[in-house]
Specification:
mainly alpha; two-stranded antiparallel sheet; 2 strands
Length: 195
């Protein structure tokens, strides 16, 4: 039904197949949702200056005004709660997590993997095309020895061992520095991620 219509509209023969039909339906549904959208006012309190502050968004103007008035009078701290939290470390780097972190630096996947390949070829990092978050016992032992000597306060009783997802091929361990000179500068950072 869509092919004749598309041909008429475009002024040339056009074929609309199953994929285009589904794509057109998604576009149509989204366009209808945009047309039915009714804007509603939202309120936010923003204070500029050396101690900049921005509140959450309020749907009710009176709540935003009440917060603004309270801030104008001065903030009174009525209670302070102290608590200790256990925070799990991030998993070691895999090829995809390395690319995600480098994307935050505006690096594309090619630049990231080319740089990693160069570091690997120079023997500075382990194999970088891996989906595994596992670290070998040798790597963990080296890290533990380094922490004992340089940062004993970061050393835990047992290292956190991250598990791979079910479909992960585990031929290579996670990405980590290999050269002792690189380890000296990187291990304290890595320990926060791995232990």
């Amino acid at each position: 039904m869509l092919s004749p219509l598309a041909s008429r509209e475009l002024g040339r023969k056009a074929s609309v197949g199953r994929t285009q039909t589904a794509g057109l339906r998604i576009i149509y549904d989204r366009e209808m949702a945009i047309k039915k959208f009714v804007p509603e006012p939202l309120w936010k309190v923003v204070l500029k200056g050396p101690d900049e502050f921005a509140s959450t968004v309020f749907k009710d103007e009176s709540k935003a005004k009440a917060l603004l008035e309270a801030l104008k009078k001065g903030v009174l701290v009525s209670d302070i709660e102290k608590k200790t939290e256990q925070k799990s470390p991030h998993a070691p780097l895999t090829a995809s997590s390395m690319q995600q972190k480098c994307a935050a630096l505006k690096w594309n996947a090619k630049k990231t993997m080319d740089t990693a390949q160069s570091l690997f070829e120079k023997g500075l990092i382990s194999y970088h095309r891996t989906d595994s978050v596992r670290l070998s016992d040798e790597t963990l032992s080296s890290l533990k020895d380094y922490l004992k000597e340089k940062h004993p306060e970061l050393l835990t009783d047992e290292p956190v061992k991250h598990r791979n997802k079910n479909r992960t091929q585990d031929a290579h361990e996670a990405i980590h520095p290999t050269c002792s000179c690189v380890r000296a500068t990187c291990f304290s950072f890595m320990s926060q991620l791995m232990l």
